[in-house]
């Protein structure tokens, strides 16, 4: 594994007591050099207890998010991603806006070879809403496993 050169930025939250950002706009994501640059592989983050707020009622909405990406030159530092996702706890947004917005921000800033996000939202008003977004077709040869979240039946 390659070591990080001295002149590259160090993660700003790793190993520090860091408060939760008050909004997604204030949240800063850290990216570090891909330790396996040039290799085609998939990284998965699952956030089974994600929350945001309904933009109409301000009641909490709950989702199981699954983020898959094939890194390019950088990878997202996981603590900064956790803080970013946690910042949605006080954010009002429709399920579609929240899910796609997370995927688009990661794609724009990190520039992965490929990224997809699945937002599996728990029902409000009796209807679960699942939202999916990706940057395009996955690269040829990339193993893309199923996201593993079952259609709603009490989602266990």
Automatic annotation (TrEMBL):
EC number: 1.7.1.13
Function: Catalyzes the NADPH-dependent reduction of 7-cyano-7-deazaguanine (preQ0) to 7-aminomethyl-7-deazaguanine (preQ1).
Sorted UniProt keywords: Cytoplasm, NADP, Oxidoreductase, Queuosine biosynthesis
Species this chain originates from: Erythrobacter rubeus
InterPro entries: GTP-CH-I_C/QueF, NADPH_dep_7-cyano-7-deazaG_red, QueF, QueF_type1
Main location: cytoplasm
Name by which UniProt lists this protein: NADPH-dependent 7-cyano-7-deazaguanine reductase
Family statement: Belongs to the GTP cyclohydrolase I family. QueF type 1 subfamily.
Record bears the keyword Cytoplasm: yes
Recorded superkingdom: Bacteria
Active site: 54 (thioimide intermediate), 61 (proton donor)
UniProt cross-references to Pfam families, sorted A to Z: QueF
Positions that bind substrate: 76-78, 95-96
Ranges for region Disordered: 1-33
Location of this chain's protein in the cell: Cytoplasm
Reaction(s) this enzyme catalyzes, per UniProt: 7-aminomethyl-7-carbaguanine + 2 NADP(+) = 7-cyano-7-carbaguanine + 2 NADPH + 3 H(+)
Pathway the protein contributes to: tRNA modification; tRNA-queuosine biosynthesis
One annotated GO molecular function: preQ1 synthase activity
